[in-house]
Structures are given as C-alpha cells and as structure tokens.
Specification:
- Helices cover 72% and strands 1% of the residues.
- The chain has 295 residues and is an all-alpha fold.
- The protein has two domains: 48 residues, no CATH class; 175 residues, Orthogonal Bundle (MetI-like fold).
- Helix 3 runs parallel beside helix 7.
- The chain is flat.
- Keywords: Cell membrane, Membrane, Transmembrane, Transmembrane helix, Transport.
- InterPro entries: ABC_transporter_permease, MetI-like, MetI-like_sf.
- Belongs to the binding-protein-dependent transport system permease family.
Length: 295
C-alpha cells in the first residue's frame, strides 16, 4: 500500500501526521479556551449554575462604566514606569559588565540571582523588609534619624504601588541585563574597534554604534516588560491583597476577584478580553515608537 504511493504524497502524509498532535494540543489548550472566553464575555454566569443567560454587550458596558476597574488599570502604569527604569538599568549594567571589568562574572551572577528566586519567596522576603514595625528598611531609617520617613509602606495608598514596582525591578532587572548582555556580545567587534580608531569615545561608541545594532533586542525586552506590567498579579495578590482600600489593585487582580470572589464570570471574561485588546494597543504604540527610533 505504502509502496504504491508517490514520494510527494508520502511526504505530505508524514508532515500531516507530525503536525497532527501539536495542532490538536493547540486547539484544545489555546484556541478553544480563547473562543470559550469570548463566548462567556457575552453571557451572565455565576460559575456554578448549568445555565448561562445571554447578556450581549452588557458586560462590556459595565467594564467601561465602572470607575474602580479603570482605577485599578491606572495602577499598572506605575509598574510600567518602574519597568522602563528596569530596562534602562539592565542595559546600563550590561554595558558596564560587557567591558573588561575585574570580577565581572561574579557581578553578573549576583545581579541575575534574584530572577531565579521563587516569586512567592521574594514576596515574603520583602514583606519583612518593608514591615512597618520590625522591617529592616524602617529600622535603617530610624537608625539614621529619619523617623518621619519610616511609614507603613504597604499601608500607604501613595507608596504601595511604588514599593511593589521596586520589588519587580529588583527581581527582573537581572533578566533584562542578561538578555542585553547576550545582544551586546553578538555585536561585531570589528565595527566597535573601527569606531575607537576613528576617535569615538566610549559613550559615543555605545550610542552610535552598539545600541543601533541591538534595537531588535531592546524592542523585545520592552515587549516583555509591557506585557508583564499590564498583567501584574502575584506581588499585589500575595503582599497586599489589593489593599489598602483597593490602592494596589491591578486590572488582573480585579478580574480574578470579579470571577472567584463575586462569582461574575461573564464580567470577568469581558475584562479579560478588554485587557487583551489594551495589550495589543499598547504594544502597537510601542512597536511604532521603537520602529521610528530604529529608523
């Protein structure tokens, strides 16, 4: 039977058989859940009853009319600011440790170590650091005579998101540094040496020669940073639970609470679809900005 088939047909059958399993997995665990999420966003469902009531676009109207949801989304931009600073700091250390600095390998390991730590462990560690009574940071401030600055960091609506943003910077900056470092080491040494021979300073070489050659990596890191900041969940969920009074709620923590605390899966699904659309819009703006910069 197989011998009677032409070589091209056997090749096509073999390709289809190899692709069958990943396609089935893609449909079951990606396309179907995404389609079902869109379906639920038009329904009114508590997550328990077997029947779902058609709600149309009412869930989406509620998303755009609820002030608390967009206040929570505004908190994500605090993380975005810290994320941009995180990228700049990672690029700075990558440029520094790409030179012939003594002990640079040890510094690379130390800066990358926070990233490999468990996120829950990091959250509990900084819970002790920023504890208002016995935290090491407030103890340091009091030891320096700055008692007025020793506040409840997780209890202050103005400070809480910046504290959480600082924790994300501490944890993920090393990853950004390693990615940038790998990109810097792929830049041809000949063009760097040529720039130095032409009299370019180290700063001019970095800005005019090195950075233009790693724009795609910078764009990738910004892409990952934006997605991470707009989908921030673990730190505010573990450390503050969205408090105080919703001051550290993010769009995703609000979505999870809507689904599993208030049993409104239709509204939560609409919030999820809205978040996906917002991510696409923000990434489109970022893509346009970085493309113009690279040009």
């Amino acid at each position: 039977m197989v011998d009677s088939l032409s070589y091209s047909l056997q090749k096509r059958i073999l390709i289809v058989l190899f692709l069958l399993v990943p396609i089935v997995l893609l449909v079951l665990f990606s396309l179907y859940p995404a389609g079902y999420l869109v379906y639920l966003s038009f329904m009114s469902w508590d997550g328990f009853s077997p029947e779902k009531t058609w709600a149309g676009i009412a869930n989406y109207k509620e998303v755009f009319q609820t002030k608390e949801i967009w206040q929570a989304f505004g908190h994500n931009f605090v993380y975005l600011i810290w994320g941009l600073f995180q990228n700049a700091l990672g690029l700075f250390f990558a440029l520094l440790l790409n030179s012939r600095l003594k002990g640079r390998n040890a510094y690379r390991v130390m800066l990358f170590m926070p990233y490999i730590m468990n996120g829950v462990a990091v959250a509990y560690m900084f819970n002790y650091v920023f504890n208002s009574e016995y935290g090491s940071f407030n103890t340091l401030l009091r030891g320096m005579g700055l008692d007025s600055l020793a506040i409840s960091w997780f209890g202050s609506p103005k400070a809480v998101n910046h504290v959480l943003g600082f924790i994300t910077l501490w944890k993920f900056m090393g990853l950004n540094m390693v990615i940038y470092l790998a990109a810097l080491q792929s830049v041809p040494s000949e063009i760097v040496e040529a720039a130095k021979i032409d009299g370019a300073s180290r700063f001019q070489t970095s800005m005019r020669v090195v950075l233009p050659n790693i724009t795609q990596v910078i764009e990738l890191n910004l892409f990952l940073t934006i997605i991470g900041t707009l989908e921030m969940f673990d730190l505010p969920f573990i450390l503050t639970g969205g408090g105080p009074l919703g001051a550290s709620d993010t769009f995703l923590t609000k979505t999870i609470a809507t689904a599993f605390k208030f049993n409104n899966f239709g509204l939560a699904s609409a919030m999820s679809i809205t978040l996906i659309a917002l991510v696409v819009v923000v990434l489109g703006v970022q893509r346009l900005a970085t493309r113009r910069w690279s040009d």
